[in-house]
Amino acid sequence: MLVLLERGVNESVASDIATRLRMFGLAVHRTDHEGQVRLGAVGEPGRVDWPAVAAWPGVASVTRLPAPFKLASRAFQPHDTVISVGRCAIGSPQLAIMAGPCSVEGEQQAFAIAAAVARAGATIMRGGAYKPRTSPYSFQGLGEEGLKLLRRAADAHGLAVVSEVMDTQQVALVARYADILQVGARNMQNYSLLKEVGHAEKPVLLKRGLAATIEEWLMSAEHVLSNGNAQVILCERGIRTFETYTRNTLDLNAIPVVKELSHLPVIVDPSHGTGIRNKVAPMARAAIAAGADGLIIEVHHDPDHALSDGAQSLYPEQFDELVGQIRTIAGVLGRRL
Ligand code: PEP
Ligand code: MN
């Protein structure tokens, strides 16, 4: 249920209302915007006399939150969520540009790529230290050593860090080094992991599952939000279709659909979305034109020798050119880098 408080309500009245709702056994989530307090009361609302709640002093109205995803919905929070990471305000008019290798492979690689993406205009460096690989014989990532390298390389160039966490037991460790915890497509419905990152004090980049509907994706976001972490960034990275000329089918429809349904920022990964180097820039441009709040792009200084996803990694010069084009498109849309 959405309990809307009277505009400018006294803080002690507001917290008292939240406490009384919690005494019914409900979880209460709060969002404040321009003097308006909104309380999302979730759980089993059937036991509560809602007309009586509507008459409590300080309560303006009580309505049902219609979507199955409650806290992720615009009905709960009409204004956009903005998540500050390093120099970037994700979900604001500023576009978030995240770039780096698929996997952290070594010191020289991490530092060379950090320098290149920072020079081009990225503010957040990506790089996996724990890699979900289709084959158990492929490179699985450098683990904590990779996180250390990523952090040092990013710090040397004033970049924030996003890195994948594959397992509940890795959350605390990855959170020590990364500014954003990435939950990969294959783990979008790993509910134990979603719960664990829901308790973390770092923003979560939640990738859409390979075969997930938009509603399932938003329900996964709901798991993180309902566990207390309000900082969720959604990432469209392509879905599995019958098409075989591209690795995945990048669903740019999802951007305007999600932007209408949810207040959460949405970024796009055209690298995994296409799987093909020369398809990345056109789809990155299209994503921004369609209203995405940012991009996450694989860049490698020597993609022919990359230990993962070389075929979809941009050369630094290509990334540099792309960021210039994104800057132009951003200007048309009243956005900036
Ligand atoms: C990645 O970012 O390198 C990755 C494995 O992504 P996804 O989970 O979208 O496949
Ligand atoms: Mn990859």
What's the topology here?
Blueprint: E1 2-5, H1 11-22, E2 27-33, E3 36-42, H2 50-54, E4 59-63, E5 83-85, E6 88-90, E7 96-100, H3 107-120, E8 124-126, H4 144-156, E9 160-164, H5 171-177, E10 180-183, H6 191-198, E11 204-207, H7 214-226, E12 232-236, H8 254-261, E13 266-268, H9 270-274, H10 277-289, E14 294-298, H11 316-332
The protein binds phosphoenolpyruvate and manganese (II) ion.
Manganese (II) ion (MN) is lined by residues 102, 272, 298, 308-309.
Summarize the structure.
This protein has 337 residues and is α/β, with parallel strands linked by helices.
State the end-to-end distance.
37 Å
Mean pLDDT: 97
Global outline: elongated
Bound molecules: phosphoenolpyruvate, manganese (II) ion
Helix content: 25-40%
Kindly name the structural category: alpha/beta
Biggest β-sheet: strands ordered side by side in the sheet: 7-8-9-10-11-12-13-14
Quote the beta fraction.
15-25%
Describe the 3D structure.
By secondary structure, the protein is α/β, with parallel strands linked by helices. 34% of the residues lie in helices and 19% in strands. It is built from eleven helices and 14 strands. It is elongated. Phosphoenolpyruvate (PEP) binds next to loops.
Provide tags for this entry:
alpha/beta; elongated; eight-stranded parallel barrel; binds manganese (II) ion; 11 helices; binds phosphoenolpyruvate; 337 residues; 34% helix
